[in-house]
Amino acid sequence: QLQASGGGSVQAGGSLRLSCVASGLTFDEVDIAWYRQAPGREREGISCTTRSDGSTYYVDSVKGRFTISTDSAKNTMYLQMNSLKPEDTAVYYCNIQSYWGQGTQVTVSS
Q1: Which tens digits make up the pLDDT trace of 83-108?
Q2: Residue 3 and residue 95: Cα distance in Å, rounded?
């Protein structure tokens, strides 16, 4: 089970940190990912970390602004979002294997 939090409303240029607490999963053993879905658009993957080789991926639109990380001691994954833009407005979802968080709304105003 994944429980996401940390969304909210910010002005352009602001920052938010999303959190996702996992129950029954060990981060060190699985790939983790963050997705988002904007109104009227399909859900898109924006960042992931592959445990097999430790590589991290970011979609071009968030590269340099977003950072994915984990705290294994807290069984929590994070998405630090800086320099937010109105086009980042979406519902954000954490994902591990077939498990999805409930989604947390991020709204960025200009």
Answers
A1: 999 999 999 999 999 999 999 999 99
A2: 10
